[in-house]
């Protein structure tokens, strides 16, 4: 008598036996579904006529017929590495009939069939791998077309232009051309180039104008320190020499000198001799714009990103400001009866709402038995939405008119403007301007051209590129694109890399009064910008919280994506 083994089941089948039964079942079903079956033997027909239940008769090829065997698949390959099925001829039998006619599949193919039968989602994954990859990038979104680019108030850190024509004209300027470009910038000389230049390398005007478009003004200036960008720049500044970090006397001297330069810039802006400038701190960036730019008839200042502490400090100093993005969303919240929107903001609870929420307790006479939330918890609940939007684009602050002067005094006297520890400790904020100001240092954007070979259908072709790095402000971007439009015969493409905290400066602000071109040129004609550049900067921003990422010029028509 056989001994009983604990855990032994007589009905247990090993996995190979189970798979073998499943393969037989699949073959039987395919043979039964196939319309082209072999004629059944006479004894089988007689048994069926007598009413006996028999299993379906397999096809002749299933009994080891002479059909060609399919190529065996590598058992160590992944399931998604199977060779794609060959296309069926239009006049051939359906796939099911082909499988029925040639069921001599190897064990790996049969296992694949069982896998697909048991896990249909795996089959869908395998089909997705075999199909061509579909990209859902922003390039699928139709871009805009125009003969001019929209105004972009963000600061770019890198521009990469590519063209089928060389950029060698931008390299190795002569000493006379470099000097002429600097003089043209200081005197705000207007340079007008033809629509298309046949030989850019021989055009002295083009090379001088290119040198002119690369100049910007900076304060403070330390050659061994990267002073832009300042947000998130601690890693780049680590290990650099900073003698002012532990010297309060030197910090006071640097801050005093910075205050003079900052005041000088604001006075130039107020008298419309400077179109705009940036103040870059380790926490936020400020864009000051003169009256007449971006559709505003007063001086405006945009601060981004901000925190609740900065906004509270500005309120305490009497600075009137607004949150343009929050104001718009708050209006939408009222229309949707308090439903939340997708910017991480919470519904604002007013004092009247809180009073009304507890009034029903007095009506039923249980106001003394129910514990009300204390004043502190109510205040924290109201300010929850303000904390959640900190360091986000929605926290951008708009200051207009004479409040910008109060903002100037606040920034000069604020101790939180300078980092108290870390690599940026004691270092004043960076001032960036398109025109000269008191204490400023002239700087140059770095430009270099590269020639590479790219693979084409017929072999290799030349691809030329021009790279510009540095704090690229809006006027420089417009000037460079105007020059390249002439030098590259109206055909090039460009990748633009944005300093992300400044992308929100492209939001559309409430427009008070739009100045016509004649009035604009009369009031801002001495600000040092080209008339076409000034005309572009006077446009109302349309990019919202985004910025230009890709620009393509073809036949003097711009195509861009943001």
Automatic annotation (TrEMBL):
Name of the protein in question: DNA replication fork stabilization factor DONSON
Membership in a protein family: Belongs to the DONSON family.
Subcellular location as annotated: Nucleus
Keywords carried by this UniProt record: Developmental protein, Nucleus
UniProt feature, compositional bias: Low complexity: 44-61, 69-85
InterPro entries the UniProt entry points to: Donson
Gene Ontology BP, a term: nuclear DNA replication
Gene: DONSON
GO cellular component assignments: nucleus
Main location: nucleus
PANTHER family, per database record: DOWNSTREAM NEIGHBOR OF SON, PROTEIN DOWNSTREAM NEIGHBOR OF SON
Keyword Protein transport: no
Disordered: annotated segments: 1-105
KW Oxidoreductase (keyword) present: no
């Amino acid at each position: 008598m056989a001994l009983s083994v604990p855990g032994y089941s007589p009905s247990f089948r090993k996995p190979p036996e189970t798979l073998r039964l499943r393969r037989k079942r699949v073959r039987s079903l395919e043979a039964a579904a196939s319309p082209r079956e072999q004629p059944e033997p006479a004894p089988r027909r007689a048994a069926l006529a007598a009413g006996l239940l028999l299993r379906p008769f397999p096809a002749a090829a299933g009994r080891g017929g002479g059909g060609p065997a399919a190529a065996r698949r590598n058992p160590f390959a992944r399931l998604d590495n199977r060779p794609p099925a060959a296309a069926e001829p239009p006049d051939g039998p359906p796939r099911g009939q082909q499988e029925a006619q040639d069921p001599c599949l190897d064990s790996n193919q049969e296992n694949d069939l069982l896998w697909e039968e048991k896990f249909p989602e795996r089959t869908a994954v395998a089909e997705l791998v075999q199909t061509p990859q579909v990209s859902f990038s922003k390039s699928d979104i139709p871009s805009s077309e125009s003969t001019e680019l929209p105004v972009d108030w963000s600061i770019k850190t890198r521009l990469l232009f590519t063209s089928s024509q060389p950029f060698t004209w931008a390299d190795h300027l002569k000493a006379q051309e470099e000097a002429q470009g600097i003089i043209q910038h200081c005197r705000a000389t207007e340079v007008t180039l033809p629509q298309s230049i046949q030989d850019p390398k021989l055009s002295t005007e083009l090379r001088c104008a290119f040198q002119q478009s690369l100049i910007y003004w900076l304060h403070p200036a330390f050659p061994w320190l990267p002073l832009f960008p300042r947000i998130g720049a601690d890693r780049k500044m680590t290990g650099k020499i900073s003698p002012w970090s532990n010297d309060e006397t030197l910090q006071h001297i640097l801050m005093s000198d910075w205050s003079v330069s900052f005041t000088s810039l604001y006075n130039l802006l107020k008298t419309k001799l400077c179109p705009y400038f940036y103040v870059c701190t380790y926490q936020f960036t400020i864009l000051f714009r003169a009256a007449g730019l971006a559709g505003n008839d007063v001086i405006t200042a945009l601060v981004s990103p901000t925190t609740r502490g900065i906004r509270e400090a500005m309120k305490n100093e009497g600075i009137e400001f607004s949150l343009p993005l929050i104001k718009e969303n708050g209006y939408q919240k009222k229309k949707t009866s308090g439903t939340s929107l997708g910017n991480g903001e919470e519904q604002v609870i007013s004092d009247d709402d809180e009073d009304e929420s507890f009034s029903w307790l007095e009506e039923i006479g249980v106001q003394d038995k129910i514990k009300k939330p204390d004043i502190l918890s109510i205040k924290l609940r109201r300010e929850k939405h303000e904390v959640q939007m900190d360091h986000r684009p929605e926290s951008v602050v708009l200051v207009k008119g004479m409040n910008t002067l109060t903002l100037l005094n606040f920034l000069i006297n604020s101790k939180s403007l300078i980092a108290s520890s870390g690599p940026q400790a004691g270092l004043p904020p960076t001032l960036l301007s398109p025109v000269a100001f008191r204490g400023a240092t002239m700087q140059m954007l770095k430009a270099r051209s590269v020639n590479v070979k790219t693979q084409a259908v017929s072999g290799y072709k030349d691809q030329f590129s021009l790279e510009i790095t540095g704090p690229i402000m809006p006027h420089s971007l417009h000037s460079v694109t105007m020059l390249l439009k002439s030098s590259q015969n109206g055909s090039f493409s460009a990748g633009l890399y944005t300093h992300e905290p400044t992308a929100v400066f492209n939001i559309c602000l409430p427009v008070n009064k739009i100045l016509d071109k004649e009035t604009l040129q009369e009031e801002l004609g001495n600000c040092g910008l080209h008339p076409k550049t000034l005309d572009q900067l006077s446009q109302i921003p349309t990019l919202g919280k985004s910025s230009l990422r890709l620009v393509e010029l073809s036949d003097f028509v711009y195509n861009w994506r943001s």
